[in-house]
Structures are given as C-alpha cells and as structure tokens.
Amino acid sequence: MKRRILNPRLAALVASVRHGEMIFIADAGSGTCAQALHPLHPDVEYIDLEAVTGSPSFQDIVATLVSVGEFEGAVVSDCMEEQNPSDYAFIAGLLGEEHVRSVPYIPDFYKLRDRCRAVVQTGDCGAHAQAILVAGWIGCGMELTGRETGQLRTTAFRAVPDQAVWPSAERLGIQRMRMSASNGGVSAGIAQRTVMPPLRARMMADPMSGSSRMGRW
Questions:
Q1: Given 3-state DSSP classes, what are the helix, strand and coil percentages for the chain, each rounded to the nearest 5?
Q2: Residue 12 in 3-state DSSP?
Q3: How much is the pLDDT for 2?
Q4: pTM of the full predicted structure?
C-alpha cells in the first residue's frame, strides 16, 4: 500500500515546506513546554502524533515524510550514533550517510530545533530517537557552519554557474544595453551599461539568520 499522510495538519505542513526549511522529529521524551529546560520557541508549530508508548515510531514518521516530501538530508545529535545505532543506521541508509550531519546535543541541536517549521512528536521511547529533516539538502547545498552556534547556511550557488539558475549580471547588463539602444537611448555608438551585483554573490554573503528565505528560489 502506498504511504500517505492521514493527519491533515502534518499533510499540509509537508506540502508547504520549501528548500532549506526544516522539520524536527521528536521522541516521546522531548519536552517542549514553556517551563522546560529548553522550551520550544513560540514561533515553531507543535504537532503531537503520540498514540501509545512506541507508536508511531521514529522510523515510521521519518520513512513516511521522506517518501512523500522533498527531504534530502538530516541533522542529528552527536549522541545518536553511539546511543541509538539502529535509528542512526536507518536514517543514514535512507538518506545516505553523506547527507546526515551531527551537531552537539546541547545547545546546538536545540537551537536548530527552534528554527524549524514544526516539531512533530512521536511515541518513540528510544534514546535520541529524533532528527531534523532538511528539505532540498542536495538541491540547496545545505551545509553546517559553526558547530558552536548550530547554524546552517546555503552554499548551493557555488556548485552551479550563475546562468544555470538565473541570468548573470554580465548578461543582464548586455540585455539592458540592447534595450536602451533599441529605444534610442544610446547615441554615437556609446552605451551606458548598468550592471547589477550578481544576486548569487549577495546571497552567498548573507548567511541565514533565523529564517529560510535563502532556501526559497
């Protein structure tokens, strides 16, 4: 039987996630209330899928989201591989180990949790049975920077030429020059060229800080 999401809120969330955005898959023991040691940021949506102890499991939810969504990478705590090798092997096998990154459990993992679109709480009682799924990891070239700050940035545009995504500044300048000439704006064969700084360079110089705007292209 083909997997599909029956929970309407989760289905809507997955349909709306864009490149560079994240969903936190939490285990049953993950506290999120305002009084918790690491309270959940109020801007992050909370979706409780817990039914009974152990259900749904971490693997159930991760496998479903990866099969129906565009999640191509994950971030896990640095405790998971040692303390929960079965779930670590599962997610590494599902996404490819090269697309699974580890960050210090405290505080980095929780800092990234607070930048997610939502926390999805499962009934899994395994140790560190949780992960952050990242949409478009391959397409957006997401990579971790600054282990001490738990930040992400996008480096996608290093991997492809400008013109593969949008016209380069040089091409934009030539197009404007031609338009000016056709409208009589160029005299004596001299064109005033207006060249914008490459959007690629401006985006690369601005790491994400609390938003996923750079993943939306």
A1: 35, 20, 45
A2: helix
A3: 81
A4: 0.67
